[in-house]
Each structure stands twice: as C-alpha cells, then as structure tokens.
Amino acid sequence: MGASHIDTGILLAVIPLVIIDLAMVVYCIVDLFKPDRKVRGNNKLVWLLVILLVSTLGWLVYLLAGREE
User: Fold this and answer.
1) Does residue 21 contact residue 43 with C-beta atoms inside 8 Å?
2) Angle at 51 between CA 45 and CA 55, to 5 degrees
3) Radius of gyration of the chain measured on its C-alpha atoms
C-alpha cells in the first residue's frame, strides 16, 4: 500500500463533505434572494459575500445569525 492508497481514502472521505458544503451554499443563496427574506443589516449583497467568501463558516453564520424570521 503506497501513498496513492492513502490519497484515495482521503479523497473518498472529503468528496461528500465538499458536496454538502456546495449544496448548503446554493441553498443559502436561494434563501437569501427570496423576495420576503429579511436579513440583519438589510443588506443582501453583504450576506451574499459572506456566504461565498467565508467558506463553510459563511453559510453557517448566515443560517444562524443573518436571517430575521
């Protein structure tokens, strides 16, 4: 078993996490641009940048703190 076996295992473990992360980014962007969605600071562009540029933490912060119910 060489290094390629280890790399394949890591890749197989990471792929589902990347897919989940991308799905959450898409979900948050769709949610953000719903006409009736209110966000903190009333600035959807700032929240879009947070979602896109802060990686996994961006969509988490949006879901936990950005949306106003």
Assistant:
1) no
2) 145
3) 16
